[in-house]
């Protein structure tokens, strides 16, 4: 990403003279900002300082319709700065929590405005039931109005996932200021948001891979849009994994015996994680973006938790949580590869969720191929080699 950032800056404002140059700048900017957020880096100032120059050559009507994408970039830029400030101790936790909550509110307002304002002709979407297909999660896709809506909406979902992770981290650091009931309410909200964003990412990926069906918008260049689907799938995968925990996940992947309970195999979280892995493998093996399979290997084999998101280890914690806490405390590692919290308690309703009336929930039981241990250095290289991209509307039949 550092090379892409330098190249983008070297191109200067001259790249804004053409429509293609402006499109590439916006798309690359989104990737760089997700990279900065993920690694707690200060975002390069030119990414937003050049906004006026970016918009100046555009006709007023085009500028109007692109406003939601640029507003999302501004919010991403502000959140990246906040994450860097938190990581480097430049801001108190209480102030960070307040700013983070405000960004979360602005993100919600962004989604509401984008779906209802005049630009909705470009950015609107609805849910669409489609025939059974392994390319579709749970028999439903998002039918978008036109490009580049699918990619921008999935970027929004990635940012909201990361915002809730920061909020959860800060709430745990400030837990002495909240009652137990308030802490439980906050944790439930964060998990609820992540689950919704995960479901929406899964519904937004088929149009980007050309699998949304004849009644929905499909990418005119699936190879390009598949490239920008990898990071949303990665973050969706981490959210699915946190709902089942690494112990159950390993059983689901590696056990071929009857000891793996049917509940583990059929739970919504396990099935969703398997579907995400299947999409990453499809992007790698069928579409040729081979590094996507490396990202799938990270999801399979390196379920490590960020130290700040680990719970206080106690006798009532699951064994894997106590082991993870002990390991992190002993070796002092700050894993930036996996920022997954301890929200591993299975949702009973999710485990019993039925797919009746919907398409198949592909469990990915046959996807456990080429499995091997992945070293931390290799994981870091995998993450650096690729792009760092990273309403429940009425359903149409």
TrEMBL record:
<feature type="region of interest" description="Disordered">
    <location>
        <begin position="327"/>
        <end position="364"/>
    </location>
</feature>
<dbReference type="InterPro" id="IPR053175">
    <property type="entry name" value="DHMBA_Reg_Transcription_Factor"/>
</dbReference>
<protein>
    <recommendedName>
        <fullName>Transcription factor domain-containing protein</fullName>
    </recommendedName>
</protein>
